[in-house]
Design a protein that fits this description.
The protein has 329 residues and is of the alpha+beta class. Helix content is 36%, strand content 25%. The strands form 2 sheets. The protein has a 6-stranded antiparallel β-sheet with strand order 1-5-6-3-2-4.
Length: 329
């Protein structure tokens, strides 16, 4: 039933509208949180799956950064920037020409993916590997065939790190088969298909570059939807089975351990050290036939006697050191 307002109520309502005062309905509407949802491009990756992808590629960025630091003989810092779901056409439009695009493939399940870096970054790596100073050029030019062959070792290491960091989730073989400088010649999925793009920032000697890895969404969805991965995402890792424990034990038993024998010590002055000549003899504090310590990673594990076996130097373990034995040298 409609209610007839009095003149006072009509005046009060008109006054509130003219002065901009908020009614109780307006305040309640503002307090509601409204989330924008794009029905044309729905978010297909859950937060748990996104977190798993971030963990995988943080390890990849860390390991590849250590490899590049050793190869280039300078500090390389690689950070994971984002893991985004976009359309394949959007990713290809973001690549400038000429580019450095590597087409890779997985074998289980079979699929293709893309690794994209800047040409300046590739030329910088080639120059450093040949002993040059290494500077990022301002001019952009295509990477030559010879430079592509030199970069193959670095790109193959990225493929190895991708396989290694995905291994706890899915074991597969990853490799790169083709190089392209024009993005128009590369198509792994239809333009309207969604892809997952992993963006990493590379910082070297005050210069910043980008590295992008583009996975087809259908490939990631096929892996993430498997029951074992869903269980791992929801409930975490389960206790290792007897077969897994045996596999770990076998792997540990075949792991190589570096042993170091300390033949003796001697303290000399800086003056004596400077005046050393060819043929000088430094007498150690140990005698021939005495027991010497055997270390592994600065831990004193055994006492042994030095000798020869089959014309090779060797040592025979005499006793085992109990306890921590952390008196490193």
């Amino acid at each position: 039933m409609a209610k007839i307002l009095s003149q006072d109520e009509i005046d009060a309502l008109l006054a509130s509208v003219s002065t901009g005062e908020e009614t109780a309905t307006d305040i309640a509407t503002k307090k509601k949180k409204i989330s924008v949802y794009d029905f044309k491009r729905p978010n297909l990756i859950s937060k748990e799956q996104m977190r798993l992808l971030e963990n995988i590629h943080e390890g990849l960025a860390r390991n590849f950064g250590v490899f590049l630091s050793a190869q280039l003989r300078m500090i390389v810092d690689i950070n994971l920037l984002a893991v985004d779901q976009i359309m394949y056409s959007e990713f290809m439009m973001s690549i400038a020409t000429p580019g450095a695009i590597y087409l890779g493939s997985f074998d289980n399940p079979s699929s293709q993916f893309i690794l994209e870096v800047s040409p300046q970054f590739g030329i910088f790596i080639v120059e450093r590997l040949f002993g040059g100073a290494g500077e990022f050029t301002s001019t952009v030019r295509p990477i030559s065939v010879i430079e592509q062959r030199i970069l193959k070792r670095v790109v193959d290491r990225i493929a190895s790190e991708i396989s290694k960091n995905w291994k706890p989730v899915k074991k597969f073989k990853c490799s790169f088969s083709r190089f392209e400088s024009n993005p128009e010649f590369v198509q792994i999925v239809p333009a309207s298909e969604p892809v997952v793009v992993v963006s990493m920032e590379i910082k070297i000697h005050g210069n910043t570059s980008m590295m992008n890895i583009c996975y087809p969404y259908m490939w990631i969805s096929g892996i993430m939807s498997s029951p074992e991965i869903q269980e791992k995402i929801l409930f975490g890792s389960h206790e290792a089975t007897a077969e897994e424990q045996q596999l770990i034990k076998k792997s540990l038993e075949s792991t190589k351990v570096h042993l170091r024998a300390i033949l003796g010590h001697r303290t000399i002055t800086i003056g004596e050290f400077i005046n050393l000549k060819i043929g000088d003899v430094i007498r150690l504090d140990s005698r021939i036939g005495s027991k010497i310590p055997i270390y592994s990673h600065n831990r004193h594990l055994y006492n042994a006697v030095v000798g020869k076996k089959s014309n090779n130097y060797a040592f025979r373990i005499h006793s085992i050191i109990k306890g921590e034995g952390l008196d490193g040298v």
